[in-house]
Amino acid sequence: MDIYEICSSQPDLVWRTLQHSTGPLGEVLVAMDLEKRGYKTEVMGNTKQLDMRTTSPSGRTFSVEIKSKKTSSAWWVQTEPERSDFWIFTRLDIEALKITDL
Question: Bridge partners of 89?
Fold first, then answer.
C-alpha cells in the first residue's frame, strides 16, 4: 500500500497526524511553492538544520532550513547559522487543508 492509498483510506489518521506534526508538511509545501517558481528542490529528510538543497533558475545552489507550525505564537529557534543559507518560517493552516482531496 502506498502513501496515497493510506491517505485515501484513512483520512482520520492523516488528520490526527497533521494536528501534531507540521514539519514534514511544511517542507513539502515550501518545496512545491519553490518549484512552481522555477527552483529545483531536494528535501533532505531527517537532517539537523538542513531541510532542503535548492537550485535557483540561474543555477545558484543553496541550503534552506524550514520551520513550520500551526499557531501564530513567537518562534523559538536554536540556531547553527553556518548550516543553512536561508531559513523559511511558515504557519500552516491545518483547518483549511482538504484532507479528502489527497
Answer: 67
Cα–Cα distance between 92 and 102 in angstroms, integer? 17
Kindly state the DSSP code that residue 14 receives in the 8-state scheme.
H
Kindly tell me if the per-residue pLDDT of 85 is higher than 70.
Answer: yes
Sheet holding 86-91, edge to edge: 40-43, 52-55, 61-69, 86-91
Contacts from 73-82 at CB under 8 Å and sequence distance 24+? 79/49, 80/48, 80/49
- Look at residues 86, 31, 24 and name the one whose alpha carbon lies nearest to residue 60: 86
- Report which residue type is found at 6: I
Distance CA 85, CA 25 (A): 21
Three cell numbers, residue 3: 502513501
At 98, the pLDDT band (50, 70, 90 cuts) reads low
